[in-house]
Every structure is written in C-alpha cells, then in structure tokens.
Amino acid sequence: EMIIPLAIGLIIARINLFSLAGLKWREKLLRFSEKGFSANLMIASSIIIMSMAIIFSKSRSGVFLLIFVFILFFELTVLYFGRIRHRQQGVKNFLKVSFLIITLISLYIGIDATIERFSLDKLLHEGRLIYWSNAASIVKDFPLFGTGLGTFASVYPAFEEKGISAHLSHAHNDFLEYLSELGIVGMLLLFGGIFFIVMKSFLIWRVRRHPEAKGLALGGIIAIVVILIHSFTDFNLHIPANMVLFTVVLSLTAVTAFYKSGEKRL
C-alpha cells in the first residue's frame, strides 16, 4: 500500500506528466520513452501487478484503500497541480488508464471471493469489535502512560471476556494498541510528531513549482495517509519491516517537500 503511491509519484516525477496535455499521442509516447522507456514501463507494470496482488489478497481494507489512492491522486491533481486544466490532464489520463486496466484484468480473472469478504456476516464474525472493546478497557485502566511498549500480548488476557480464550498478539488497530501501551502522553508524542511532519510537508507541497519534487512528495504523502488509515483495522505499524519503511518514507517525503536548490532539478 505504501509502495503503490510512491510508484505513481515516481512516474509523475520522471515523465513530468503535467506537460503531456495538448501533445499528440506520438509525441506523448516519445516523451514516455525519452526518460528511459524500459524503466518507465517497469514502474507502470509494477503498479498494476501490486494493485492486482492487493485485490486478490482478499483484504477489505487493502481493496478500499487501493481505490482511495487513485481517488486521492485524482482529486489532489485537480486541486493543486495548477488552475489551468491542460496541466492536470496528463496525470488524470494516466490514473484513468491504470485504474481501467486493473479493473478489467480483475474482472476477467474473477473477484467473487474478494467481494464475498465484504459481506456483513464476515464483518460481524471476525472478532475485531471484541478485540477493540477489550483494548479500550486496557486504555481505561492505564490512561496516561499505558502498560509499556510491547506489553499488549501479555496484558490482554486479563481483559478478555469470560468464556473467551484466544491468544491475541495485536489489537488489529494500531492506534488502540499504541494507546494501551503508551497511554495518552506517548500517543501525543508519537502521532503528534507524525501529524506535524505530514501537515507541514503538505502545506509546503501545495506551493511547490518543481514538477519532480511535487510528484515524489505527493506519492510520499499519500503513502503515509493510506497506511495510517489502514492502521485503524490492522497492526501494520507493529510489524518491524513496515514501521522501518514508514519511517523512511516519512523522512524522505519531508526532505523532498522542503527541497529547494533553485527549483531546478533533483
């Protein structure tokens, strides 16, 4: 989920899709190839392949957020890539074509099993609501400083309902789990810092003129937003590899958004 927005942002930055509008198709193909056709084709193909992988993983949050990624790119293109409509058209066309290809391939292969995962019965019988309720009880008993980082699996059994016995390593909600472990003080320090960096990067990104910096920073901002939204229903940020990647993306996004150097070239 973090890689797909980064890949889209990289395509936008490499080809400068903002300037493709108004060109003939032959000229667009030449522009696509002059920056390294094989590399661009590989990046575009990887976007489609990774999107397909999310769809067939049957992850409800993954499918929802995949659609959200394309919508967010589309809307931010309309809002902040210039008031002149022809500057927006290149990015919008790329997003439309990519989404159409993903949809057609998915329908051709078959997505019945994925759609079935969205049924109400599936949602009600997976236990997440119970996990969240029990995690909220931990927060209620340890509101300020929590139980300590990494203690959720050890503390949770004491808050389980009677008659229910299940080994739960994570709360399937990163925010609730961090809140139970770090308390309100720790949560404010951790996610307050993340929120500040993201918002500051976004505000700087809005006024940028450098096409490469703007494309790369947009991909990073959307990647961060997407993984944070997914964290409401899963424990992505408690997986070490994901947290390391999240930290790297957050740092590079801030650096790219603030990058100056004469606004010429990265």
In short:
The chain has helices at residues 3-15, 25-34, 37-56, 60-80, 85-109, 112-116, 120-124, 128-141, 152-155, 174-206, 211-230, 240-258. The protein has 266 residues and is mainly alpha-helical.
Explain what the structure shows:
The chain crosses the membrane at residues 6-25, 37-56, 62-82, 94-111, 182-203, 215-233, 239-259. It is a multi-pass membrane protein. InterPro entries: O-antigen_ligase-rel_domated, WaaL-like. Residues 47-191 form the O-antigen ligase-related domain. It is a single chain. This protein has 266 residues and is an all-alpha fold. It folds into 2 domains: 1-123; 127-266, no CATH class. It is built from 12 helices and no strands. Helix 10 packs antiparallel against helix 11 (211-230), helix 10 runs parallel beside helix 12 and helix 11 (211-230) packs antiparallel against helix 12. It is globular and about 65 Å long. The mean pLDDT is 79.
Number of helices: 12
Q: Which runs of at least 5 residues are low in confidence (pLDDT < 50)?
A: none
- Computed structural class: mainly alpha
Number of strands: 0
Radius of gyration: 21 Å
Mean pLDDT: 79
CA-based shape: globular
Percentage beta strand: under 5%
Taken together, the total number of domains comes to 2
In this structure, how is the largest beta sheet organized?
none
In whole angstroms, how far apart are the ends? 25 Å
The helicity comes to over 70%
Order of helices and strands: HHHHHHHHHHHH
Subcellular location: Membrane
Protein name: O-antigen ligase-related domain-containing protein
InterPro entries: O-antigen_ligase-rel_domated (IPR007016), WaaL-like (IPR051533)
Pfam families: Wzy_C (PF04932)
